[in-house]
Amino acid sequence: MTSPSDALPTGTRPVSMVTRLFYLLVSVAALVPAAFVIITPFDLQTQAIFAVFTAAIFLLVNRFKSRTATLVIVSLSAIVSTRYLWWRTTETLGFIDPFDMMFGYGLYAAEVYAWIVLMIGYFQVLWPLERQPAPLPADVKEWPTVDVYIPTYNESLDVVKPTVLAAMAMDYPADKFKVYILDDGRRPEFKRFAEAAGCGYLIRPSNEHAKAGNINHALTVTKGKLIAIFDCDHIPTRAFLQMTVGWFLRDRKLGMLQTPHHFYSPDPFERNLGTFGRVPNEGQLFYGLIQPGNDFWNATFFCGSCAVLSRDALDEVGGIAVETVTEDAHTSLRMHRKGWNTAYLRWPLASGLATERLSIHIGQRMRWARGMIQIFRTDNPLLGRGLSFGQRICYLNAMMYFLFPVPRFVFLTAPVAYLLTSQNIIVASALMVMAYAGPHMFHTLCTQSRLDGKYRYSFWGEIYDNVLLFHIMGPTLLALINPKAGSFNVTSKGGVLEKELYDTPIMRPLMILAVVLLGAIGVGIYRLLFTELFPGDAPVLWMNLFWCFYSAFTVFAALAVGRERRQVRAQPRVRIRQPVALYFDGRRSLLGRTEDLSLGGGLLRMDDLADDVTVNEEVYVNFEQIEGDSGVAARVVAVKGREVRLEFMPQSLDDERTIVSAVFGRADAWLNWDDRPPDTVGKSLVDLSGAIRGLAGMAFRNMRRPREGVQQPLAAPSRPA
């Protein structure tokens, strides 16, 4: 059998066992001097020299872009951060006052959690695997059969229809794949559409186990060798099956291959902060870096959509897991325990709708958090057989991440304890704290910027976590206590928002925290200016004030996400450049290219002036990159120079299929998904400062206008378990 690495180009192959052994021996040999550096106590001056020396090493090595340089930088960061934690453990916990002890040990525990997550995070992404597609055999008879599942529950037909039409148009032999709508809503209009489109339509007697149960029922009805699963709003490109299926022939023990979840519409963070297309979205880090890192360790997670699974693997693990609400990740964990491999192809081959409302977005993350903690409690990756060390670490990191709310709350509020109550939570001078904590924060920030900078800009992770903080805290703690608590909820997609509003119910806990932080800052400034301080108090006060200012900055940036901006387009536009021709009734034709398209219409830039084109004139649009008859009737809605804006007027299901293919079906549609400038700390600060100014501007406008009825945010609908 051919090795999976044979399909990878030079420079992206997995390292050989000899190379891995070499790195292991080098790492073991380096542990002794590293341990000596970590545990040796320094006085203030020596520690300051150490800080400057390690920063200089980073600045020198960071100029090189090789993987070896990255390994050096990660190792340096690990040593500096571990040295800081060793110092905190051995020299800063001598509390006497019980309140000092309570606050101090709370902060220390949060720092231990952060250090563990940092270390296993470095391990997880140290060597991301850039897997390439495996070619299919020349003989089509050898291609496996594929069942394509599109589960749906309460989504509208307008959302589901493009996914079905695009799936049916995938480039794969017609007798080798079949598309099925799995309709847990049992809606007659969906059945009629399936019959008209020529795809399968499956329902079941009950809604037991929600999406997982829906898929498991379909497995008992269909017979394909492979199963491709798409959420009902994730529209595949024509190349999806040809780019993914080959790996199942290359590796006969491959149980699942995952591709990225890419979104052609902005999520609430991108829309409300105005960063769509400029700043990586919340999921970019996971799909851009973490999943390739998982792939190196044969620990790729199934994410519920845009993936292909082996029926044999599903049969061996008993189908999609139903014991937790994150049935996808739990299923891949069971596959790994049974000896199946998984893979990740970092090519976006489908695209979907992001959640529109912040409340719905948070509801989705609450389900993920609860589900991962449920797995941690019921099928802990550290326990049991069947997993390699790398797989255990990768799964553990995914689960530990969702325990962040309590440590994050501690980090945000720790300076408040000193500013309001003078509680000394670190038994050390301010200069010693800065000498040890400063290098730790510098190397952590700069190393993560090097590793993650293309996929998550500096400080943005804190904004995401702050928004989720109070909403995830309850479900994760509840799942730790009772992993069976909670029910499955569906992520609603599609919708408009007619006017700007502020989501006060979602943001209320953060608003209270912001008031507390501002109050603490006010008290600290008062103490600094108008009270008599003991010797050494001023540096401690300044340090805590700076810490509190930073906490307040990140909290106010998170509050800006609650400013729900208007969204009046039911069909988001996608920037697409492809040749197009306009045909007029008995007159002439115009050639040009598309600027942007949606399922409802598009903006065209013609090669010649469109002076004689009139508004409301009916035309025929031909997309030249689509084979066969690709013409669709349309109506002109605006003309300006060479620009023509059209509204599509499909007359049949074939017309709708053509529009879907033109907008979403191209194989290269989303290949520029991570084409953004590199991370810079200054730019991130400017972006977040702009978000805060936007929030202040909204508050000022609302103060000047008469108060109207408060529009409540949409809630994520639940479904029967």
TrEMBL record:
<dbReference type="InterPro" id="IPR009875">
    <property type="entry name" value="PilZ_domain"/>
</dbReference>
<feature type="transmembrane region" description="Helical">
    <location>
        <begin position="107"/>
        <end position="127"/>
    </location>
</feature>
<keyword id="KW-0973">c-di-GMP</keyword>
<dbReference type="InterPro" id="IPR001173">
    <property type="entry name" value="Glyco_trans_2-like"/>
</dbReference>
<keyword id="KW-0997">Cell inner membrane</keyword>
<feature type="transmembrane region" description="Helical">
    <location>
        <begin position="45"/>
        <end position="61"/>
    </location>
</feature>
<dbReference type="InterPro" id="IPR003919">
    <property type="entry name" value="Cell_synth_A"/>
</dbReference>
<keyword id="KW-1003">Cell membrane</keyword>
<keyword id="KW-0328">Glycosyltransferase</keyword>
<feature type="transmembrane region" description="Helical">
    <location>
        <begin position="21"/>
        <end position="39"/>
    </location>
</feature>
<keyword id="KW-0472">Membrane</keyword>
<dbReference type="Pfam" id="PF07238">
    <property type="entry name" value="PilZ"/>
</dbReference>
<feature type="transmembrane region" description="Helical">
    <location>
        <begin position="510"/>
        <end position="529"/>
    </location>
</feature>
<feature type="transmembrane region" description="Helical">
    <location>
        <begin position="541"/>
        <end position="561"/>
    </location>
</feature>
<feature type="transmembrane region" description="Helical">
    <location>
        <begin position="425"/>
        <end position="446"/>
    </location>
</feature>
<comment type="pathway">
    <text>Glycan metabolism; bacterial cellulose biosynthesis.</text>
</comment>
<feature type="domain" description="PilZ">
    <location>
        <begin position="567"/>
        <end position="664"/>
    </location>
</feature>
<feature type="transmembrane region" description="Helical">
    <location>
        <begin position="395"/>
        <end position="419"/>
    </location>
</feature>
<keyword id="KW-0812">Transmembrane</keyword>
<keyword id="KW-1133">Transmembrane helix</keyword>
<keyword id="KW-0135">Cellulose biosynthesis</keyword>
<dbReference type="InterPro" id="IPR050321">
    <property type="entry name" value="Glycosyltr_2/OpgH_subfam"/>
</dbReference>
<keyword id="KW-0808">Transferase</keyword>
<dbReference type="Pfam" id="PF00535">
    <property type="entry name" value="Glycos_transf_2"/>
</dbReference>
<feature type="transmembrane region" description="Helical">
    <location>
        <begin position="68"/>
        <end position="87"/>
    </location>
</feature>
<protein>
    <recommendedName>
        <fullName>Cellulose synthase catalytic subunit [UDP-forming]</fullName>
        <ecNumber>2.4.1.12</ecNumber>
    </recommendedName>
</protein>
<feature type="domain" description="Glycosyltransferase 2-like">
    <location>
        <begin position="148"/>
        <end position="317"/>
    </location>
</feature>
<dbReference type="InterPro" id="IPR029044">
    <property type="entry name" value="Nucleotide-diphossugar_trans"/>
</dbReference>
<comment type="function">
    <text>Catalytic subunit of cellulose synthase. It polymerizes uridine 5'-diphosphate glucose to cellulose.</text>
</comment>
